[in-house]
Amino acid sequence: MQERIIPGAPVSCPRPRVTKYGTFYPPKYKAWREKAKTILQDLGEVEELEIIFVFPRPKRLKEGPRERHQKKPDIDNCIKAVLDSLPHDDKYIHTIISRKLIAASNEAPHIEIRVYNTEDQIPF
Questions:
Q1: Is 13 exposed, middle or buried (0-12, 13-18, 19+ CB in 10 A)?
Q2: C or N: which end of the chain has fewer Cβ atoms within 10 Å?
Q3: Number of Cβ within a 10 Å radius of residue 38
């Protein structure tokens, strides 16, 4: 198993903008994706993946442990952003486990990525 952490608030993959000059993504998303690519660049081929998105804790919530995040962005768009940042084609991935959480009171927002290969046993 390999583990990586992408610091900062999770980002979802936006819809690409299509104009008569071509298709493009917003600059903020492209900058995040480049940062994530540098962190994930040394991963081998990925088959099984566990992704935990830890979002910033809202001020309305007092101190406490991690909690479920049940607001936007959608989890599928967050997963797409991570898959776009992988160094290899994501067509070989056959299992993805993912969660959206609100950070604990003493925790910074980040994305935890665990990669399991065929000889590893993914925990269900």
A1: buried
A2: C
A3: 10
* Structure token pair of residue 124: 């269900």
What is the rounded distance in angstroms from the CA atom of residue 21 to the CA atom of residue 54? Answer: 36
Banded pLDDT at 117 (limits 50, 70, 90) = confident
H helix runs in 22-91, sequence order: 27-40, 75-85
What is the C-alpha to C-alpha distance for residues 69 and 22, in angstroms, rounded to an integer?
A: 35
pLDDT tier at 119, thresholds 50, 70, 90: low
Centre a 10 Å sphere on the Cβ of residue 87 and count the other Cβ atoms it contains: 12
User: How do the domains of the chain map onto residue ranges?
Assistant: 2-116
The first and second tokens of residue 5, run together, are 């952490």
Considering the domain 2-116, what is its CATH architecture?
A: 2-Layer Sandwich (3.30)
Hunting for tokens 């540098």 — which residue is that?
Answer: 38
